[in-house]
Write a structure and sequence with these properties.
Radius of gyration: 28 Å
Number of strands: 3
Low-confidence stretches: 92-104
Strand content: 5-15%
Number of domains: 4
CATH superfamily of the largest domain: Tetratricopeptide repeat domain
CATH class of the largest domain: Mainly Alpha
Largest sheet: 3 strands, antiparallel
Mean pLDDT: 85
CATH architecture of the largest domain: Alpha Horseshoe
Number of helices: 20
Distance between the termini: 78 Å
Order of helices and strands: EEHEHHHHHHHHHHHHHHHHHHH
Strand order of the largest sheet: 2-1-3
Helix content: 55-70%
CATH topology of the largest domain: Serine Threonine Protein Phosphatase 5, Tetratricopeptide repeat
Oligomer: single chain
Structural class: mainly alpha
C-alpha cells in the first residue's frame, strides 16, 4: 500500500507511542487516534506497509512490545531509530556521496545551490533545488536541507528528517577540514532538538569531527544525563585534552560549567557515581580557575567546611569576597560564617550592613538570591552568632522577596517572615 508511515506520542504521561501505515493524511490519522497525541514525524512511501512491518520487527526484537495503531511503551528515539533502519533497508534514505552510483558533478551542484539561494527561503522550489544539490554532495546544501526540515523552510517540519539529514551532513564533512560556519550551524540545529537522545547523538558526532562547542555540549550531557546516562568519566575523557589557550571567553565559560557540573556529581553521588569530596573540590577549583563564578561558592564552602580539602578560613573568606565583588549576595553568607567561626562578630555584622545598604538597593539583582541570603542572616541571628543590624526598611524589602521562599521552602518562609515581622 502506498501512503504515509506515521509516528505519534500521547500528549499526557506516560507518553506512550503510536505507529501505523495509513492512506490518510498524517494530521487526519492523528486526529482519529483514541487519545490526544502529538504527531512526531511521518513520511510518504510507495510501500508503507513494508516500512511498518520492518519497524515492528525491529522494535519487537529489541524487547519493545510495539503494536500497530495501539499505544505501547517506548522511548521516542527507540521508535524513530527503528523507523530509520526500516527506511534504510528499503533504500529510501538519501544516498551518501560515497555510496551513490551517480557520478557527482560539482559544477551542477554549485549551479543548483546558487539557483536555490536566489529564491525565498520558504519557497518549496528552493527546497527541491537544495535537496538536489545535497544529493550531488554540496556541503552547504547538505546542511541547509537539515535546516529546512528543522524549521519548515519550503517543506513540512519534520524532526526525524532534520535529524537524519544532519547526520548525513556530519558524516560527509568527516572527510574534510571542518568549516567553522557549517560546524556552528549544525551545532545550533543539534542544540535546538527537543529529543534529548537525538540531540546527544548529533553533538557527539560533531565533537568527533572537531567542533569544540559540540564537544562541550556532549560532555554536559554526560554530566546532567540528557540523552545519555550520567558518566563523569566520559565527560572528562571528552574535555581532557582541551587546549585552554585556544578557547574564546564563552568557551572557557562553557568548560567551567562542565567542571562545575562534574563537581556537583561527585559531591552528591548522582546515579552510579559514588560521592568523592576530594574530586568535587578539585573540579570546583578548576571551574573557578576558568572564571566560572558560580564555582566560587563551591570552593568557598569546601574550604569553610573542610570538604575534600584542608579547612582554611582565610581561603574560604577570599573566595567569598570574590563572590561579593562579582555582585553575588550569597557571598555575604559564606564570608560572615568565616568571621563568625574566627570570633570576629563585629566584622560579620559590618558585612551584613553592607549587604543591606548596597545589594538591596540594586533592584536588578535576583530576588531568589536576596531571599535566601536574608534567610541565612536570620539564621545567624537566631543562633546568636550576630545581633540584628537591619532596619524597618529592610523588613519591607524582605516582604517582597519572601514570596520566593514561600514557593520553594514553605517552612523556611514561615520561620523567616515571622522573625522579620517581629523585629
Amino acid at each position: 500500500m502506498s501512503g504515509y508511515f506515521c509516528i505519534a506520542m500521547l500528549e499526557d504521561p506516560p507518553y506512550n507511542m503510536f505507529i501505523a501505515a495509513t492512506e490518510n493524511e498524517p494530521e487526519k490519522w492523528r486526529d482519529e487516534l483514541p487519545l490526544p497525541s502529538h504527531l512526531l514525524c511521518y513520511e510518504y512511501f510507495d510501500d508503507a506497509d513494508e516500512v511498518e512491518r520492518q519497524c515492528l520487527q525491529t522494535l519487537n526484537a529489541q524487547g519493545v512490545p510495539a503494536k500497530v495503531s495501539k499505544a505501547f511503551s517506548a522511548a521516542p528515539y527507540e521508535v524513530i531509530t527503528a523507523f530509520l533502519e526500516a527506511r534504510d533497508n528499503l533504500n529510501l534514505a538519501l544516498d551518501s556521496c560515497e555510496d551513490s552510483e551517480v557520478e557527482i558533478n560539482e559544477d551542477e551542484a554549485d549551479q543548483l545551490y546558487e539557483l536555490a539561494q536566489e529564491l525565498d527561503i520558504h519557497n518549496p522550489e528552493r527546497f527541491n533545488l537544495m535537496s538536489r544539490a545535497a544529493g550531488c554532495g554540496h556541503m552547504y546544501a547538505l546542511v541547509e536541507v537539515a535546516e529546512c526540515f528543522d524549521y519548515g523552510w519550503g517543506c513540512e517540519k519534520n524532526f526525524m528528517q532534520a535529524f537524519e539529514a544532519a547526520k548525513q551532513a556530519i558524516d560527509f564533512l568527516r572527510d574534510y577540514d571542518l568549516n567553522p560556519d557549517l560546524g556552528e550551524r549544525l551545532y545550533d540545529l543539534a542544540d535546538d532538538l527537543n529529543d534529548a537522545q537525538a540531540r546527544f547523538i548529533l553533538l557527539k558526532k560533531l565533537a568527533d569531527i572537531g567542533c569544540i562547542d559540540a564537544l562541550f555540549g556532549a560532555a554536559r550531557c554526560y554530566c546532567d544525563g540528557r540523552g545519555i546516562s550520567i558518566d563523569p568519566k566520559m565527560a572528562l575523557k571528552l574535555i581532557g585534552h582541551t587546549d585552554l589557550t585556544a578557547l574564546s571567553a564563552s568557551q572557557r565559560n562553557a568548560l567551567g560549567k562542565i567542571y562545575f557540573d562534574l563537581a556537583n556529581v561527585y559531591k552528591e553521588g548522582i546515579e552510579k557515581t559514588i560521592p568523592d569530596l576530594k574530586k568535587s573540590f578539585k573540579y570546583y577549583k578548576q571551574s573557578a580557575d576558568l572564571g566560572y563564578w558560580p564555582a566560587y561558592q563551591g570552593v568557598a564552602w569546601c574550604y569553610l567546611d573542610g570538604d575534600g580539602v584542608k579547612k582554611d578560613l582565610n581561603e574560604a573568606l577570599d573566595w567569598a569576597l570574590r563572590l561579593i565583588d562579582m555582585g553575588c549576595g550569597y557571598g555575604h553568607v559564606i564570608a560572615t560564617e568565616c568571621y563568625n567561626e574566627a570570633g570576629m562578630k563585629e566584622e560579620a555584622e559590618n558585612l551584613w550592613r553592607q549587604f543591606f545598604e548596597k545589594l538591596l538597593a540594586n533592584t536588578e539583582k535576583d530576588d531568589t538570591e536576596k531571599a535566601y541570603t536574608m534567610s541565612s542572616y536570620v539564621e545567624q541571628v537566631l543562633s546568636k552568632k550576630i545581633t540584628p543590624v537591619h532596619t524597618k526598611k529592610e523588613t519591607q524589602h524582605f516582604s517582597k522577596y519572601a514570596e520566593v521562599l514561600k514557593k520553594d521552602d514553605p517552612n523556611l518562609y514561615e520561620e523567616t517572615i515571622r522573625w522579620f515581622e517581629s523585629h
